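Please annotate this fold before class:
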Amino acid sequence: MRRPLITIACIAAALAVTPPAVGQTARPEPGPLTIAKQGSFFVGGRDVTSDTLSTLPNYAPSGTITVDQMYVRYQVPAGPLGIPVTLVHGCCLTGKTWETTPDGRMGWDEYFVRRGHPTYVIDQVWRGRSAANPSSINAVRAGKAPVEQLPTVFSAGHEGAWAIFRFGKTYPEVMPGLRFPLAAQAEFWKQMVPDSLASLPTPNPTVPALSDLAGRIGGTVLMSHSQSGIYPFQAATLSRRGIAGIVSIEPGACPEPTDDMAPYRDLPILVVFGDYVDAFPRWAPRLRTCRAFVAAANAAGGRAELLLLPDIGIKGNSHMLMQDDNSLEIADLLLDWIDRHAGAAR
């Protein structure tokens, strides 16, 4: 009786060192990643002259800075190319959303490249590597402006974000069958950054930057998430040039069904939601609006679809489904849709 127990203990110890992803189909080691080119650049931006750039004696308060530019990192694989995909992160996060998962698995940015798609990852304007404007903060600090003119900046705390990301209804409760790797949540929380959305104009300057980027690429699928879910739709209202399709993952908002549907006519659109949506007052109304938008877009000659993962038997996915334990299976679904719809329309 003791020998099997020792064997089981050894297996358990081995799994504790390199735990398999629960629910993720076993995949062979991918081997070296071969790319033709990679790099980074900025899109957009404007110069601002200010007398409150600094309150430090070693830096001049007056001068010109560039703001509202959007950072873009790209990788182009070697070999035959699929349609490019542009990945746009959501609230309180950066382009890290799409990179290595909190528990160390391959992120979508790498996986899409391995599947043959040139991949562009952005940091929203005033977020991550996209510069913010400190002038109004320093103006208040220097006594040149009232406190009321301070910009509004917010962060999502672990406890509040718990329900926003649908890990559970109340921190630290967990939804049954949740596929987010909660054992690695400490790494996830490190991704969270302050968000200046409330201090930016509408539409967010990220929107015209995305429109410009799509034109530069010459054809790309804009894949957005959460807060940025509406941005590709707003970019399409500016210009359809370069927008080959839209994949909006768990959008914070879809266009209203009463909006002008002309910008979306013949445009491949996929709206995706994970699990537990109807159990959360924050998310259920958003799903209803997106359903209504899809119906309105198609009635106006659109090519829109809504995919609720539990409807096809995929359950347990959180709001952060690109980091859930079945993330690559979901990536395969999205890339197959892109190849069939946006790729064919390119």
